[in-house]
Amino acid sequence: MMQLNPSVSSSIPSEQPMEEKAITYMDLVLFKAAADGDVEAFSDCQVALDCLVDGSQNTVLHIYSRTGGRLVVKNVRAFPCFQKRVFEREFSINFVEQLVNKCPSLLLQRNANWEIPLHIAARHGHSGIVKVLIERANVVLHEDPERGLDATGARQMLRMRDEEENTAFHLAARYGHLDVLRLLVKEDPDFDFSANTSGETPLYLAAEGGYHGMVTEMLDNCKSTVYGGPNGRTALHAAVLAGDEKTVRKLIEAKMQLTKQTDDNGRTPLHYAAHFGKRSIAKVLLEEDASAAYISDKERGMSALHMAAWQGEQGIMEEIISNCPGCCEMVDKRGWNFLHFAVVAVSPKKLKRFLVDNKINDFTNRNLFHEKNVNGYTPLHIYLTGPARQRLGWFSLNSFLLDRELQKHIRQLLNDIGDNAEVEGLRVHPNFRKRVKDEDDVSFIEVVEKTRETHLLVAALVATVTFAAAFTVPGGYKSDEQGDATLSRDPAFKAFIITDTLAFVSSLLAVLLHFRLVFLKWSLVNLRFQVIRLADVLTFSATIAMVIAFSTGSYAVLQSSMGFAIATCSLGLTFVPGLFIAYAIFRFFLGVVLSALVYYLQTWCISNKGPVFAVMFSPLVVDF
């Protein structure tokens, strides 16, 4: 062993000045013996055990409290003919007792981080060592009170703090060691759970980790009422963020007033439940105290309903409105009500269902869609400009038109919300972060124009074919009567003429509408989409009519062979049901197969790459 002379303060807390001692650093043999609990290695040691340390001022008892004993290998029978090797720590009570008997001051000696052995054992969950340390502390008190422990016995040891003001209670709660915590609580149920330097109490740490058993143990067996955490949060905030519904219920039963207690940002536990999509927890909070829904945060003036809306959490919005309908008209600092957010984050079909089911258009809430914010924008303005416009493609004929500059300003506002809004590391709904293209964007205009030209070509082709068919009628003309069709009295021929005319007129109207679009300004983008939609409907109708004209015309000229005529006509008319079947298959593929594929991709990403990669696949889900 190498003798060194630097001074070291006594680890026993006292009002007297610290003593200077010559310390000795452990060599490899003694360090391994301390880790394994080898008593014989220290039986003949000439150095005082409180002076024998490692580079971090850890004593033999610190090291043993960290390792938990000798590592042994056991053969365990797994199957009738097989065995497997299991590595376990073998704890020795005798080793700890001999160390403490030889040098009682080890119980309270601190390392470089001001940790005593009890801190180390509590952090690593060695309940056996914790139990022995507590017992030996009480024994040492009765044998010789002047050897380091005051009149409170083991409680003095339990209440000692490290450099971050953590007690053994804090460390056991942080790392979820319930057995250790039970021993500590049993020994000192009167301990006041004060906070460490980070503002965390043991109750907060247990709730944050989702350790329901530990929270229950402290609430049922301790007299402390301290439940605070950093940034003004409470243990209830922590339980909500951890998503632990059982702990939330337990805390509410014990501390009812926590449901409305806000953190430094003015957010209640209900705010976090809404933002993180914890519907079952939000339901519990609302059932206990629905008035928390009326509290707005300090940063943005948002209520829990706002936060549920901007995350697109339809279920939580329903819970809040059903328990507290009066909060629907609340606005944030921008003057936005919850529908300003909902029309962006919730898909149009789900939003319509939500509004109908919750009767938002009735009574005092019927004008929510037309309430203006501080900039004069209503939820309807946001709806017609935000991502819903991209999903719908175009709007119904009764939608109003927006000025282009107004649309640009609203899109910029939505982008700002998406770029700057984040709560506890979770950003708002992706729809707030989607870059909506400017209507003057060249690539956007080119795509629309190419699509329009393709549709125009199809309409012109249908018009040309049906025009030619009208003058080259099936069966030809009678040679003895000028201009009289041979099959003019046949019902099938009459059906051919009518459907061919409908196809020609519909396709010609579609051509004229596309021609009109050339003279329509791009600032009226919504009107352009409505005209394109009408033209597409006419072209589709013309195509159906043309197929019927082909089938009836074929039937008219092939009536001499009735079986052949019926077969030809039937094959031609299969176009219509075939079209609907193809559409149904298309919807099924996108709605079921693609959604399942995306789900498995997200699951794989979460398991292998983390949730950040899974978010990349979320835009692939098609809304039906």
Describe this structure in words.
It is a multi-pass membrane protein. The chain crosses the membrane at residues 456-477, 497-519, 531-558, 578-601. The structure is a single chain. This protein is mostly helical and 624 residues long. Among the domains are: 1-160, Alpha Horseshoe (Serine Threonine Protein Phosphatase 5, Tetratricopeptide repeat); 442-476 and 485-573, no CATH class; 578-624. It has 28 helices and seven strands. The strands form three sheets. It has a three-stranded mixed β-sheet, with no helix packed on it. Strands 4-5 form a two-stranded antiparallel ribbon. β6 and β7 form a beta hairpin. The chain is elongated. The relative contact order is 0.04.
Give the tags:
7 strands, disordered C terminus, mainly alpha, 5% strand, 3-stranded mixed sheet, 624 residues, 28 helices
